[in-house]
Amino acid sequence: MTGNLAARPQVVIFDVNETLTDMEPLRARFEEVGLSGDLMAAWFAGVLRDGFALTAAGAYAEFAAIAADVLRGLLAGREADPDKAIGHVLRGFTELRVHPDVPDGMRMLRESGVRLFTMTNGAAAMTEGILAREGLLELVEARLDVSGPRVWKPARAAYEYAVDRTGVRPDQAALVAVHPWDIDGAQRAGLTGAWLDRRGTPYPSVMTAPRISAPDLKALATLWLDA
Q: Does residue 220 share a domain with residue 154?
């Protein structure tokens, strides 16, 4: 366990893709449509890039539409039926599982009285399906996504939208994520940033340092419960 201790928040808002969900199984889907599994990370980074770019330009598109477009570019010249291949890859999201530390960590926080929410650049419906399969849906008060504010995180308005739905002040809420850009954006909007550093990677010096960090959600919950 690492990082500066922060007071236990009243509300915890979870990022979803990679923070709660393990996206590694999507690599097999890439290979099944003739792409290298190693392209999965570059594809996801490209989806984030285009979502961020549209937000910066004052525009908006949903995750699924951008994800399909980036995949179409990767498949160019390789696949006779790109729409079928794209559908196969994106259906993989319906089979994703959460990381092993997530169920216990979420239950520890909820049992201590912390209210739980999710806020994703993806789709709230996908989040609900994943949480339902894992038996965690009842722990989460509301599943939110960026179709509400029509801006992608890390735009300030995305966090303001989520906090407004919780009914607390920004300083009473924490955003849990594995992405430094998400932590930085949340903290600039007044939330506590809680970084899950599952891979032991250096945190970028150009971004605001997380108020609290831990190697997984169980460890983070323990830090907060002991604070």
A: yes
Say if pTM beats, i.e. exceeds, 0.85.
yes
Name which of 152, 147, 159 is nearest 193 in CA terms.
159
> Exposure pattern of 204-225 as b/e (b: 16+ CB <10 Å)?
eeebebbbbbbebbbbbbebbe
> Peptide bond preceding 202: is omega within 30 degrees of 0, i.e. cis?
no
| C-alpha to C-alpha distance for 147 and 48, rounded to whole angstroms | 15
Q: Using the 3D structure, point to which of 35, 64, 95 is the last residue of a domain.
A: 95
Torsion sign over Cα 44, 46, 48, 50 = negative
How would residue 50 be classed by pLDDT, with cut points 50, 70 and 90? very high
Alpha carbon distance 136, 45 (integer Å): 28
95: its two tokens: 């089979």
Residues 91 and 126 in one domain: no
139 and 222 housed in the same domain: yes
Distance, CA of 51 to CA of 71 (rounded, Å) = 14
